[in-house]
Amino acid sequence: MISHECQQHSLVRPGQGHRICGKQSRSSSSAKLADRFRVVREGALWAHQPTDTSTQLAHLEQAFQTAYPDNESEELLWKVSGIDERIHTEKGSLTFLFANAIRYLELDLAFRLSDLPSRTLLILFSDHGFVENKAFTRTDKYEAPRYMHGKDSPFEVIIPWAWVMRL
Ligand SMILES: [Zn+2]
User: Fold this and answer.
1) How far, in Å, is the centroid of ligand 1 from the Cα of 33?
2) For the chain, how many structural domains are there in total?
């Protein structure tokens, strides 16, 4: 997910507001996207249990309602679900998964973020991680997922965030 503090909108003042724009992580940024943004700060978050999107969204919407009671969460939260969709459908190696995620971000997210004015601040973060299904075999690839999430392993719980500025 992505959150941004947008200097062009009066509803969000720099240093106080957040707009969440999508699902993304720093590791999946491509070179082209990186050329248009500068990382200001970065760190890690803990996902709530279970590590699924509906659980994280419930907590986020509650927090936004408290912090910004006059705004709809859709104005503040920009959810990009393309990476999660690829986690649930990819049957190939991590290399394929990451390549598909980067391609998706270049085609979808980078296009949308390019419209943001210079000096716009954003917070990009994942809502949960994922792990490889150790029981996955190629012979049952149509029945079993190769990647999954929802439990409490470190790779599902510890998630990245990055505060970035549009150059
Ligand atoms: Zn999912």
Assistant:
1) 24
2) 1
